[in-house]
Every structure is written in C-alpha cells, then in structure tokens.
Amino acid sequence: MRLRASYITKNFGHRAIVKNVTIAVQPGEVVTIFGPNGAGKTTLIKILATLLRPTSGQLEIEGTDAIAHPLQVRSVLGAILHEPLAYTALSPYENLKFFGRMYGIAQLEQRCTTLLAEVGLSRFVHEPLHVFSRGMTQRFMIARALLHHPSVLLFDEPFSGLDAVAKEFVLRRIAQERQNGKGVVITTHSTELGYLAGTRFFFMVNGELEEVASKDEISSETLLHLYEDRLINRAPSA
Q1: DSSP assignment string, 83-100
Q2: Closest residue by Cα to residue 62 from 1, 138, 117, 136
Q3: Three-class DSSP category at 47
Q4: Are 209 and 34 in contact (CB under 8 A)?
C-alpha cells in the first residue's frame, strides 16, 4: 500500500472542510478525485502531502504514520499544488539543485539536466521561473515533484490553465509514472481529463468523499452523468 488515509477530518473553526475521508492507493494506481471548487479537494491533498495536519483521523504513507512523522515520509512524496513550491527568482536548474541537495541526491547535476530535458525545458534551464507561462511552470513542477524518486505523487488540479499540448504532456507523464509503480492521486473538475488519467474514481462534494468505480467498470459518459447528478443532488442548501 502506497498511501492509506482513514476517517480524515479537517475543521476550520466550526466549519468542517473535509469530513471523515477514507482512501487507499496501491502501487501502479491513479486515483482521480472529481469535485467542484470549494469541495475540499485542495485541503485533502495538503493533508495527504503532510502540509496540513488533520483535525482527526489517521494517515499512513509507505507504512509510516505520516501524522506523527511528517518529515520522515516527505522523502517518498512528490506534490504539485497551486503554489509553485519553488523560488521564482531562480531558474529551474537552480531550484532543482537546491532541493536536490536537501534530499541528498547522488549525481545531482545529471539528475537535474535529465529531468528538465524530460519535461521539455532544456532551452529554459537558466531562465527565472517568474517569466514562465502556466504550462512551463507546470512542467517544472512535475520535474520538482519527481526529483527525489518519490513513490507517491499528489497532483492538485494538474490540468488547470493549460493548453491542449501541455494537458497531453501531463497525461503522458501520469501514465508513465503509473507504469513505474507509483501511487498517484489527482484532483480535477474535468471528467474528461480525469477519466483519461485515472484508474479509479471518486467524487468529493461538500467535504465528503465517495468512491464511484474503477475505469473498467464505467464509461466516461456514465461517469459524467453521475457526477452531474451528484452536484445537483448534494449541493448545500441556501
């Protein structure tokens, strides 16, 4: 088991943002969580990435208690969040070298050069991140997430703001990491892209997570209809 979360709840004041979420991710599995804005998806991803502490519940990553030992499990986690998690005044190469030293990566310069080539940034390795487009930044964030060979990848809205070429790149990279045995969790509100990327599907509405089906059990059209029904039937009352 790559990741197991049990009865995770997160409250901000008296408001429950994440409500008793239970989810498990196996090696070579891409779990897609569909949900509208404000559903609690980003909060859940930050909890899984050990960046937020849950109000209650348990979280194990590669068999380690991630709530009690967050620093210990971060070496096996790679995350793409809305924030770049990098120094935007520095180049992608400088960022990767900085973070690589923190992880103690062997043959670091070669690793940085290889990763930046894989994500299509070879021509921009010495440009500061703050001049990058949304798609270029997303490519860099994939390299940043993969730098230390993590076994668990957490992607929050990885397709947001990307053009068609960049979306196709992200889909290919997710498929490649799944084939490499990584456990992947992505959140999205796009049923089309989430279906293409995922192997198992969940809905998250009003902080509650519901397992729907695996990919071999449901078509993209049926998934879309179910999702639309959930948004209508489970919308909060005014």
Answers
A1: S--S-TTS-HHHHHHHHH
A2: 1
A3: helix
A4: no
- C-alpha to C-alpha distance for 206 and 212, rounded to whole angstroms: 16
pLDDT tens profile 30-41: 999 999 999 999
Contact predicate 76/150, CB 8 Å: yes
119-137 residue pLDDT tens: 999 999 999 999 999 999 9
Residues in the chain: 238
Q: What is residue 190's DSSP assignment?
A: -
Burial of 175 (0-12, 13-18, 19+ CB in 10 A): middle
The H or E element that residue 59 is part of is strand 56-61
The CATH number that domain 3-233 falls under is 3.40.50.300
Q: Is the whole model's pTM more than 0.90, yes or no?
A: yes
Give the separation between CA 218 and CA 223, rounded to whole angstroms: 7
Q: How far apart are CA 181 and CA 152, in angstroms?
A: 9
**Quick one: pLDDT at residue 237?**
41
Domain residue ranges in the chain: 3-233
Of 177, 123, 125, 127, which is closest to residue 155 (Cα–Cα)? 177
φ/ψ of 94, rounded to 5, equals -65, -40
Q: Do residues 36 and 231 touch, judged by C-beta distance below 8 A?
A: yes
pLDDT (0 to 100) of residue 64: 98
